[in-house]
Amino acid sequence: MTPQNLLFFAELLHRRTGILIDETKDYLVKTRLAPIAGTSGYADIDALIDAIRDRPEARVVDAALDAMTTNETFFFRDQTPFEVLRTLLSDPGRRGAGPLRIWSAAASTGQEAYSIAMLCDELPHLSAENAVEIVGTDISQSCLTKAAAGVYSSFEIQRGLPIQKLTRYFDKDGESWRAKNELRSRVTWKRHNLMDSPWALGRFDIVFCRNVLIYFDISTRRRILDLVAGQMQNGGHLFLGASETTLGVTNAFAQTNRAGCWIKADASAAPHALSA
Ligand SMILES: C[S@@+](CC[C@H](N)C(=O)[O-])C[C@H]1O[C@@H](n2cnc3c(N)ncnc32)[C@H](O)[C@@H]1O
């Protein structure tokens, strides 16, 4: 891959997705784009990038950008956020007039949103289907297709899903496991780029935006966190990944006394909030 093509593609990726790669990551671009070049009928990666530059086809550009996303995820990832969420949701007083709305904002292949759905299902006051609305979004269409299907390999199932939940919420489907309808129907999937306004998704009480900010520079993190904050109810809680923070990025959130859990800053005195 020529340095010019790497530069062009890195700039396109950053502009369209916020994802940052530098010249030391050329191996990553090569490994991820080689299969796209093959399936799209280009001789090599340079031919693919030339085509993206000179005669872009939405299908090919999308596939190339999608291939650059890192989709690592698993059920109940890091456990603590889900324990904190359970504590937050265990207070029946949290429930207002409408359904509680929870957003898995970089949902990848769905394990995070389904973990939230299982957790809600096990809380008596949230077990009714219309008590909670869970929306899973991602920029990657291939991830969303898999998430909506709810089919996971044994390897994916073994990563974080307790056996009781496996038997309760999944059916064996050949070599794989398929989420039962009752679990799948608890999550709505939508394609959404975190760089864009989330206005159309509605307002949320709780947002999981975990393990995605690490791919962005500070100004992109600020833009995304401010957009997310604008879409949250007063007293809303934000969950970030273990190595992610709002500190030094935006004042839209205040830290709570629970690791990885943030509260929308102007509502830190809300009655059901964890203490900030
Ligand atoms: C490492 S996964 C994190 C999945 C899950 N949140 C977790 O913590 O296990 C990061 C996800 O962010 C998505 N992503 C990257 N850039 C994005 C953007 N600009 N808008 C929406 N999603 C994005 C990727 O497609 C990927 O599925």
UniProtKB/TrEMBL annotation:
Output the Gene3D superfamilies linked to this UniProt entry.
Answer: Chemotaxis receptor methyltransferase CheR, N-terminal domain, Vaccinia Virus protein VP39
EC id: 2.1.1.80
What keyword terms does UniProt attach to this protein? Answer: Methyltransferase, S-adenosyl-L-methionine, Transferase
> Which one GO biological process term can you cite for this protein?
methylation
Reactions it catalyzes? L-glutamyl-[protein] + S-adenosyl-L-methionine = [protein]-L-glutamate 5-O-methyl ester + S-adenosyl-L-homocysteine
Q: Which InterPro entries match?
A: Bact_Chemotaxis_MeTrfase (IPR050903), CheR_C (IPR022642), CheR_MeTrfase (IPR000780), CheR_N (IPR022641), CheR_N_sf (IPR036804), SAM-dependent_MTases_sf (IPR029063)
> Pfam family example for this protein?
CheR_N
Record-annotated CheR-type methyltransferase domain positions: 1-253
Q: What class of enzyme is it?
A: transferase
The GO terms describing molecular function are: protein-glutamate O-methyltransferase activity
Protein name in UniProt? protein-glutamate O-methyltransferase
